[in-house]
Design goal:
Layout: E1 5-6, E2 15-18, E3 24-27, E4 37-44, E5 52-61, E6 69-74, E7 77-84, E8 92-99, E9 105-111, E10 121-130
């Protein structure tokens, strides 16, 4: 998980799957209480204050019933506005830019779709990179 923390309710509900490229994916297929809410969080203590960074993630819709609507925040500010996954079994890359405001930056990934059925997706390649000046 490379420092990413799954919230307690989700900790044992995710499956970790490895693909041909040795990338780990999180699959939410077995969450019975629904997927709504923040499900992943990571704190970054070494980012430089007032510097711009890009956050990116790769996601894939695994079931077409009720597509997830994902949003990413850094220190509470929206980095990736709500995006609805729409391409079944096809990887999509989403990214956004944020400016570091404090000595510790917390990045959260939230799902706004509140259902346990048809809301399955995979997520991989969670990355933070400095934006060149």
């Amino acid at each position: 998980m490379n420092g990413w923390v799954m919230l307690e309710d989700y900790r044992f509900e995710f499956q970790v799957i490895q693909d041909e490229g040795k990338v780990l994916y999180l699959h939410t297929h077995k969450i019975e209480a629904g997927h709504k809410g923040v499900f992943l969080k990571k704190e970054y203590p070494l980012l430089v204050r007032d510097k711009k960074y890009e956050f990116s993630m790769t996601v894939m819709l695994d079931y077409p019933g009720n597509p997830p609507e994902l949003e990413v925040k850094a220190a509470g500010d929206v980095v990736i506005e709500k995006v609805t996954l729409s391409r079944l079994h096809e990887w999509q890359v989403f990214s956004g830019i944020f400016t570091v405001k404090d000595d510790l930056t917390s990045i959260t990934i939230e799902n706004h779709t509140d259902t346990e059925y048809g809301n399955d997706f995979l997520i991989a390649k969670l990355q933070v990179s400095p934006v060149p000046v």
